[in-house]
Amino acid sequence: MTTAPPADQLRLLEVQALDTRAQQLAHQRRTLPALAKLAELEGRISDLHGSLVESRTRLADLRRELAKAEADVEQVRTRAARDQSRLEGGGVSARDAVALTDELASLAKRRDALEEVELDVMERLEAHEDALAKVEAANDELLAEKAAVEAERDAGWADLDVQVAALATERLRTADGLDSGLVSLYDKLRGQLGGLAAAALRGGRCEGCRLDLNPADLGVAKAAPPEQVVRCEECGRILVRVGQ
């Protein structure tokens, strides 16, 4: 049978209130609204990241395609310029002149076709650059929003940390000198009962489980010596008799 001075039992209720508040602060830390918002933003950023990678890869492909198209056009232009120079420079036979003229006509058609390809690639590249710019702007906006929410989260955590530190100091002061047997029982029950180990017995009701004690159990609790630590028959918590 555990015994402890009545004053220690009453002070145990103060310790319990502080421990309950500490649990509440821990819960607040885990459930800050900013944390849910951050999770949502990180999901959206992750989804957008895939689109960004795909879009940037496509942009690189289009730039390579444009470079090839420009090189093809330049190759034809260079060859046509060379043929034109030979034709205008004289010194070629009539047969070679006809061949050069035919080749120039063929090269002109080839150049026109390649320039159409080049123009098509340029248009697709421009459209893709515009689309990518919009995706990057959306990503930048999400990152900025995430940074703002992270700052909100950190401010919330800092405020809670101050409260937790003050609460810890107050608990040390309140628990100082309590009966060791009472404290051992309290700590054991806290681990078993979700943190609420001690409750007041007030008006025949256990304020831990919120149930009224039956008349027999209530009579036993009231008749017990003041230094005896009594327990609730319903929930097993330490019952601190108040108002007796």
From TrEMBL:
Q: Which Pfam families match?
A: CT398_CC, Zn_ribbon_9
**Parts forming coiled coils:** 52-152
Outline the extent of the C4-type zinc ribbon domain.
Answer: 205-239
- The record places domain CT398-like coiled coil hairpin at 15-193
What keyword terms does UniProt attach to this protein? Coiled coil
User: Which superkingdom, per the lineage?
Assistant: Bacteria
Which species is the source of this protein?
A: Antribacter soli
What InterPro entries is this protein classified in? CT398_CC_hairpin, Oxidative_Scav/Glycosyltrans, Zf-RING_7
Query: What's the protein here called?
Result: C4-type zinc ribbon domain-containing protein
